[in-house]
Write a structure and sequence with these properties.
With about 400 residues, the chain is of the alpha/beta class. About 35% of the residues lie in helices and about 20% in strands. The structure holds thymidine-5'-diphosphate (TYD).
């Protein structure tokens, strides 16, 4: 039995994905002996509807000076955050001298757009190496973990915020009550807290279980976010489904009664009920789907390697750590993983130790098969890789189904 991080009720995890390393913990060979593993189990709480990791490594093990994730590695992401900043400006920054706080502001990918317009802002980013990149772009950033105390501190220094935003951040934080309590204090009476995160509905529909890794402690839905908001005298007033990260939901939260509730909230909640997201039995089916996906992927890779062809991974994503470790995929199946992020190159993937190499190696000596670990960027990658495909290269995918993109082995 595990205890729900949100409502403290007991629940039974519906799956264990086995021993997992830190998903973003790309490492050097000399560090193999010291690698940290934890048992990764996920459960559904049928009281507050929160799907969550039963155990999570300490935050210092995941977010630190050498954190390997830089938001600005994808042009589509850059465009997404420009749109996010425009949306904030149009909907929520209409008064005099508005103030925006971003939680997990990373390398300033969103706030740089507001900094350029001289909007008062503050980025809160615990990983100092990425925050330093933001500062170099003129984005005011502090390297701290956001919580109730920090919210009070920011309020005393800068006043309350018109908007508090967070993209792919809130789902990382186990002490969610402290975050919501801090937001409640820091937000102006008509302010909006907007957070977007991978959406439980997409994970269930697409069996995209690679969204489950150490950093993602919560898999939110309209039901669970509504519950959280209510606990803190706030309410969900709008939602927006987004294609990012393989399917995300943007949640708009305000002080209770401050704004009209959009129909999108009730409509999306109804879709969740139809999808079974408020029933424990659904998650037994999710476990079955995950196990089937693993078996099919392993047998496809094994068959290709038995035929003597090379397979290279494309994108050393955090998500790939779940796939490689849960399925048992090592260098005997995947020769190396190609990645454009310099800090990951020359290192090895967490747990199963597949080498990570610069993209040039893939471009100069393409394999027959590329395993698309960065499937959430498929559109951008396919547009860039027409030469690989034209020369007979094949893409192996596993979301929503295991197979080849053109389905011909
Ligand atoms: P990301 O989508 O952020 O996934 P996660 O949240 O699971 O880590 O990571 C994308 C990774 O893929 C990143 O390391 C950069 C790499 N990448 C490439 O190597 N080539 C590409 O064309 C793209 C789009 C990404």
């Amino acid at each position: 039995m595990s205890q729900c991080l949100i409502c403290q009720k007991d629940y039974e995890p519906f799956i264990s994905l086995g021993n997992m390393p830190i998903a973003n913990g790309f490492l050097a060979e000399e560090d193999f002996d010291r690698e940290y593993f934890f048992e990764m189990k996920v459960g559904y709480c049928d009281h507050c509807h929160m799907v969550q990791l039963a155990e999570q490594p300490s935050r210092e093990m995941m977010f630190h000076e050498n954190y390997a994730f830089f938001s600005s590695t994808s042009t589509l992401q850059t465009a997404h955050f420009k749109n996010f900043a425009d949306m904030l400006g149009e909907r929520f920054l209409l008064g005099d001298d508005p103030f925006v706080v971003e939680l997990g502001s990373n390398d300033g990918i969103m706030l740089q757009n507001l900094a350029a317009r001289n909007v008062r802002h503050l980025g809160v980013e615990p990983s100092n190496n990425v925050a330093e990149v933001a500062r170099s772009k003129g984005v005011r950033s502090i390297s701290e973990f956001f919580d109730e105390d920090l919210a009070e501190h920011i309020k005393a220094e800068d006043g309350q915020a018109d908007a508090i935003s967070a993209a792919n951040v809130i789902c990382h934080i186990p002490y969610l009550h402290s975050i919501y309590a801090g937001v409640q204090r820091l937000l102006k009476p008509t302010g909006a807290f907007i957070h977007e995160d991978p959406y439980l509905g997409d994970i269930v529909e697409k069996t995209s279980y690679d969204q489950i890794y150490d950093e993602h402690v919560f898999f939110f839905s309209v039901a669970s976010v509504s519950y959280m908001a209510e606990q803190h005298a706030m309410e969900l007033f709008d939602v927006e489904h987004l294609p990012n990260h393989g399917g995300s939901m943007r949640y708009y939260i305000g002080h209770r009664g401050a704004r009209p509730i959009s129909d999108t909230v009730t409509e999306q909640r109804q879709k969740e009920i139809e999808l079974g997201l408020e029933e424990a039995a659904t998650f037994d089916r999710v476990r079955q789907n995950i196990e089937n996906s693993r078996d099919e992927l392993l047998s496809l890779l094994t068959k290709i390697r038995a035929g003597g062809e090379r397979i290279v991974g494309y994108g050393a994503t955090s998500k790939s750590t779940t796939i490689t470790n849960y399925c048992g995929i090592g260098p005997e199946l995947v020769e190396y993983i190609s990645d454009t992020t310099p800090i990951k190159q020359g290192k090895f993937s967490p747990g199963t130790h597949i080498p990570v190499r610069p993209y040039e190696e893939f471009a100069n000596n393409p394999p027959k098969y590329a395993l698309l670990f960065a499937w959430n960027h498929a559109k951008e990658i396919m547009a860039n890789e027409t030469a690989f495909t034209a020369s007979g290269g094949k893409w192996i995918v596993y979301v929503p189904n295991v197979g080849l993109i053109d389905d011909s082995v």
